[in-house]
Amino acid sequence: MSAGYSRLEPELMTTRLRLTMLVLDDAPYMRAIWATRPGVPPPNQDQAVARLAGRIAEYELTGIHCYGMRLQGNDEVFGYCGLVTGRTGLDEPEIAYELIPQMHNFGYATEAAQAVISAARATGRHRLWSTVGTWNIASLRVLEKNAFVRDHSRWDKDGEIVYLRYELQGQQQPRGGQPVA
Fold this sequence. Notes:
- This protein has one domain: Gcn5-related N-acetyltransferase (GNAT) (Aminopeptidase, 3-Layer(aba) Sandwich), CATH 3.40.630.30.
- The chain is built from 4 helices and 8 strands.
- It has helices at residues 27-34, 45-62, 108-122, 137-145; strands at residues 11-13, 17-21, 66-71, 79-84, 94-99, 127-133, 149-156, 159-167.
- Strands 1-2-3-4-5 form a 5-stranded antiparallel beta sheet, with helices on both faces. It has a 3-stranded antiparallel beta sheet with strand order 6-8-7.
- The longest helix is centred in the first third of the chain and has 18 residues, at 45-62.
- The termini are far apart.
- Residues 175-181 have low confidence and may be disordered.
C-alpha cells in the first residue's frame, strides 16, 4: 500500500444505500452486473469468483476496493461503486461504478459516488479520477453531479475516453460542478 494513505472503510451507509465490501458470496450478483456489458460475454460462476478473489486480494495490498451497492434492508447487490487503480494509479485512483439496468435513473450511482468520495478523502488522498467513454452520457452525468471536472481526453480502440478529476483536498464538493460533456 502507498505510504501515508489509510484504507477505505469496509462499509458505508447513505440515506438509501448500504455499501459493503464485496465478498465471494456476491459472485452471482456480480455476474448479473457484468452480463449487462454490451459486446462482452458474461463470466461463468468460476470466473466471477476468481475476479472477486482478485479484487479482495488487491484490497489487502492497496487498501482500496469497490463496494457492493445494496438498498437499505436488502442484501441483494445491484451494483458496485468504489476505487480502482485503473488508468491513473494507486495515489490518484479512479472511481468506478456499474449498476444493473433496472436500477438506473434512481440516483443510486450519484448517491454511492458521494459516499465513496467522502471515504476517499478520509484516506488522505488529494485527487480522484474517472475515465469514461464519451458515449456513456449517464456516467458523465453522475460525475457532473458529483463535481468532477473534465481534464483531458484520449482515444483508444473504443473511441474517445474522457479523463475527469476531483480534487479531494480543495473546495470542490459534490452537487454543482462544471459541466463535463
